[in-house]
Amino acid sequence: MSVILVVSPHLGVRETFSRLLQLQDHDVDSVASTVTALLRLKLQPIDLLILDQDCDDLKGSSVEDLATWYLKKDPSNRVIVMCGGRQATTRHTHIMKPVTPSELLAKVRRVVWEQGCENLPEEEQ
Predict the structure, then answer these.
(1) Which of 27, 61, 69, 120 places its Cα 20 to 30 Å from the Cα of 41?
(2) What is the topology classification, in CATH, of domain 3-120?
(3) pTM of the model
(4) Dihedral sign, Cα of residue 87, residue 93, residue 97, residue 98
């Protein structure tokens, strides 16, 4: 089981992602801003941070800044940035919106597997 933090200003995104990931036996927490996420990350280790690029306009703390800080803190940390529009505007692992449940779960499985938290099913190797 992985510990995952979902960061999105959209309540529906936070609730949907949390439910989907909990059904896959992940321990999930969610917050609405990068500022709150930073505080949360300083208090408890997280295996995977999922960031919505829509958080960029909140209180001057950008998604890129948070992702970069988190990865520098410990290179084994993992981040997925949800990007809108036609192309990714991040240098981090990303997933394009709108995200289907199967896309989200496949991306999370792959990233968590890269971290060594669980075995990757054969069909995804």
Answers:
(1) 120
(2) Rossmann fold (3.40.50)
(3) 0.83
(4) positive
